Amino acid sequence: MLTHLGRILIVTGALLALMGLVCLAGDKIPFIGKLPGDFTIKGKNYTIFFPLATMVVLSVIISVILNLFGRK
């Protein structure tokens, strides 16, 4: 039971650390937010940014990583 909880905590911590690194180095990663499926709507007093393609790519990468670590 505690072994399973330990693995969950390690994976969660690694994902949080990875997300922190992406936030810190987000401007230096060339494809984040600039893929041809990321939508930007600019109005007179507002800007809405919806990075659809970036979210799909990151979801696939995270799914592959979790599947590699989750297999026994």
Q: Could you state the order of secondary-structure elements as H and E? A: HEEH
Shape verdict = elongated
Strand content: 5-15%
Q: From the helix content, strand content and strand pairing, which structural class follows?
A: alpha+beta
User: How would a textbook summarize the main sheet?
Assistant: 2 strands, antiparallel
What's the number of structural domains? 1
Main sheet: strand order: 1-2
Please count the helical segments: 2
Mean pLDDT over all positions:
84
Low-pLDDT stretches: none
Distance between the termini: 15 Å
* Percentage of residues in helical conformation: 55-70%
User: What is the C-alpha radius of gyration, as a whole number of Å?
Assistant: 16 Å
In short:
This protein is of the alpha+beta class and 72 residues long. The chain is built from two helices and two strands; from the N terminus they run αββα. Helix content is 58%, strand content 14%.
